Amino acid sequence: MTRTSDTLSLSLRLKDATHTIHEDLDRGIMAQGLFSSADKYRNFVQLQYQFHRDINGLYSHADLVETIPDLAIRNRFALVHQDMRDLGLPLPDAQNPVEAKDASTAIGWLYVAEGSKLGANFLTKLAEKLGFTETFGARHLAADPGGRGPSWNAFKSAIDHAGFDPALAVTGARAAFLRVKTYLNAPNASLNTPA
Ligand code: HEM
């Protein structure tokens, strides 16, 4: 039987819909050599800081907390903030918070943040070679307390059974990847339209 987007779970649909932009982002991060030196790595942490700052409010979205009870402890903003301090980096001025969207769009944004914890397994190893660890400079790349796999599976299971609107969720996930790409290409970008 051919899989159509109607029969896919939400998490698979999000994965399919963002596959190309994820690859594009990976390539961009590697092309800029963000893991090639401690100095370049600072740019990566700043990029992550800006993304997690922008989505910080979504981790306390009232509708989402009902669906995902451990949502607040999944939030890595405090960790990446501490990484900025470890590295002595000044906090960027711009504030571009993602507005408290409808729950479906918001979950698309959070899918990107939560999924990136998988890729972080690989990135942790690169960061370690530069001297950054889960207790200094690469705190936000550490696995969730229960482990990466179980944490991700629990998140997917929760979003797959909550009745979110898939089209809105895809819009949110694509916007999230684009946001990260914007910060990659324009550090300190100030966005007029937080979408
Ligand atoms: C060079 C940087 C990156 C590399 C090498 C990378 C690599 C990976 C890998 C290998 C996986 C799959 C892991 C698995 O299935 O066990 C993954 C998943 C994922 N990554 Fe990345 N990643 C990178 C950066 C990012 C960034 C910056 C974001 C978003 C902010 C991101 C978002 C995601 C998402 C959403 C998934 C889950 C896909 C799914 O299974 O639905 N990644 N990444």
Automatic annotation (TrEMBL):
<dbReference type="GO" id="GO:0006788">
    <property type="term" value="P:heme oxidation"/>
</dbReference>
<dbReference type="Pfam" id="PF01126">
    <property type="entry name" value="Heme_oxygenase"/>
</dbReference>
<keyword id="KW-0560">Oxidoreductase</keyword>
<protein>
    <submittedName>
        <fullName>Heme oxygenase</fullName>
        <ecNumber>1.14.99.3</ecNumber>
    </submittedName>
</protein>
<dbReference type="InterPro" id="IPR016084">
    <property type="entry name" value="Haem_Oase-like_multi-hlx"/>
</dbReference>
<dbReference type="InterPro" id="IPR016053">
    <property type="entry name" value="Haem_Oase-like"/>
</dbReference>
<dbReference type="GO" id="GO:0004392">
    <property type="term" value="F:heme oxygenase (decyclizing) activity"/>
</dbReference>
